[in-house]
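Title: Prediction job returns without error message
Component: structure pipeline
Severity: low
Priority: P3
Assignee: unassigned

Description:
Job completed but the reporter wants confirmation the result is attached to the right record. Sequence as submitted:
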Amino acid sequence: MLSRSLAGRELSLPIRAGAVGLAVALTATAAQFTTPLPFTAVPFTLTPLVVMLTGAALGSRLGFLTQALYLLAGAAGLAVFSPSITLPPGAARLVGPTGGYLWAYPLAAFATGWLAERGWDRRYFTSLASMLTGLAIIFAGGVSWLAIAFAPSFGAAVASGFLPFVLMDLVKAAAAAMVLPAAWSLLGSRR
């Protein structure tokens, strides 16, 4: 089982470390595929998709660790966050308009990983529920931070940090939900 194997102790430390390193690199790569939107400081990125998938694939602890390391790399000034001329670079990004989304990544990866460890990654609808849980955590963190620090009201935070993204993010969650059950089906057919 992919999530339990990587999250468990039966794999060696170098393999687990390599999986985490690859997941950090995938998260950083997904952040580079960004589309700024003129009506909000929050860009559209592929990062939430990778956050949810790496959490589900690696399990709760390694998923959390992956996203925490991603945040540390960005805070250290590495170019892992989405490129932007308007958003602050480095550690300042963690307190900028997208900070709430970023801080939610480790929690979202933990939640999707925790659910995958309980078999939610085996069937499409439970996998979708897992991905939607992770997505809800990301939106809750992002919109809450916008409402607290940047928007004049909670309604304005929802209008700039949720509504423009929810449809495409639901599509991303639906696509991500297909990946792990398909992988399990492929692995099952090879036995």
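Comment from assignee: result matches the submitted record. The CA atoms of residues 6 and 15 lie 8 Å apart.
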